[in-house]
Amino acid sequence: MAPYLLLVLGILFFLTGLSGIHGVSTVSRVSVNEGGSITIPCLYHHGSEKHVKYWCSGYFFTFCSILIRTDSQSAYNWLSIADNVTTRVFTVTIKNLQLGVSGYFWCAVEKGDTTHLYLSVATGTAGLYVDQQHVTGVEGQSVTVNCNYSNSGGFCWCRLGGSCVKSSVGSLDGASVEIKRILANGKKVMIVTMSQLKMKNTGWYWCAVGDLQMPVHITVNQPNTIQSNTTTTNQNNGGTDEKRQERIQSLLEVLFIPLSLLGVVIAGILVTWKMLRKHKDKKAKDQPPNTSVQSADSEQDITYSTVSHTRGTAQQVKTPTSDPTQPKPSAT
């Protein structure tokens, strides 16, 4: 009887591919509202970077249907896959989820590493959801994630493939973590705040309430380089600017007297020149007009004559002779 029982257990173990045994990590149960979208991260171990990753659906891994692979394009426009070999995480994004999609899915690596999760599509509001799955923070500052939930149970904030914070305060990879649960506008919210962020805090996390989890990716950026350099430059040049202003002020004090004297001299010259001009204009005004001056037009009416005296003998006047042919005048 015992050998048969061991055989059955072996077969079940092979068919189900128990999660976490083969080196792939992900969330175990997620809830999404109908028509919504979700990104599922699958973390794999070192050495699988060059292997093909894929996503399949079905209760048993051996008989699951492969929906998408990293080495080929998807046949569905609502499904995509991406592999980040640097962080060793491949992500599967599902859009416009419908009720019929609910079921078991598998994160799988070509060489045999697998893990499964259950995805449920809710007709109303999902049991646990976030407004944004991708959040950005700045190194040295803080970031806040609001996990909205309607179910009940324990709560925690975990890093994918790492440790968890299950109390109100804690730390993850050097960043401080604070968890608060409040009731806002009739909604239950778990507020997770990560402060004193470091670049190594970039990665996938998940918040959990009860048996539901929701993955969230946090990106930590360096502070704005231009602003930092500008602030540093201003701080370093503060003393230099003050000294420059002091030198300018001292120079102005030294040049004040010469410039003042120059201004007085220029003013005196202007006043003297104005007085001379005024005196000249007055003298020209008091002088009587010159009446002996003729216009140039009157010279044109003058006639000039030249008289010459010639010395000589007196000329004899010759009387005309009478013409015999002409009749003589009568004496009567």
From TrEMBL:
<feature type="compositionally biased region" description="Polar residues">
    <location>
        <begin position="288"/>
        <end position="332"/>
    </location>
</feature>
<dbReference type="InterPro" id="IPR050671">
    <property type="entry name" value="CD300_family_receptors"/>
</dbReference>
<dbReference type="InterPro" id="IPR013106">
    <property type="entry name" value="Ig_V-set"/>
</dbReference>
<feature type="domain" description="Immunoglobulin">
    <location>
        <begin position="132"/>
        <end position="221"/>
    </location>
</feature>
<feature type="transmembrane region" description="Helical">
    <location>
        <begin position="254"/>
        <end position="273"/>
    </location>
</feature>
<feature type="signal peptide">
    <location>
        <begin position="1"/>
        <end position="23"/>
    </location>
</feature>
<dbReference type="GO" id="GO:0005886">
    <property type="term" value="C:plasma membrane"/>
</dbReference>
<dbReference type="Pfam" id="PF07686">
    <property type="entry name" value="V-set"/>
</dbReference>
<feature type="region of interest" description="Disordered">
    <location>
        <begin position="223"/>
        <end position="244"/>
    </location>
</feature>
<protein>
    <recommendedName>
        <fullName>Immunoglobulin domain-containing protein</fullName>
    </recommendedName>
</protein>
<dbReference type="GO" id="GO:0004888">
    <property type="term" value="F:transmembrane signaling receptor activity"/>
</dbReference>
<keyword id="KW-0732">Signal</keyword>
<feature type="region of interest" description="Disordered">
    <location>
        <begin position="280"/>
        <end position="332"/>
    </location>
</feature>
<keyword id="KW-0812">Transmembrane</keyword>
<dbReference type="InterPro" id="IPR013783">
    <property type="entry name" value="Ig-like_fold"/>
</dbReference>
<feature type="compositionally biased region" description="Low complexity">
    <location>
        <begin position="223"/>
        <end position="239"/>
    </location>
</feature>
<feature type="domain" description="Immunoglobulin">
    <location>
        <begin position="27"/>
        <end position="120"/>
    </location>
</feature>
<keyword id="KW-0472">Membrane</keyword>
<keyword id="KW-1133">Transmembrane helix</keyword>
<dbReference type="InterPro" id="IPR003599">
    <property type="entry name" value="Ig_sub"/>
</dbReference>
<dbReference type="InterPro" id="IPR036179">
    <property type="entry name" value="Ig-like_dom_sf"/>
</dbReference>
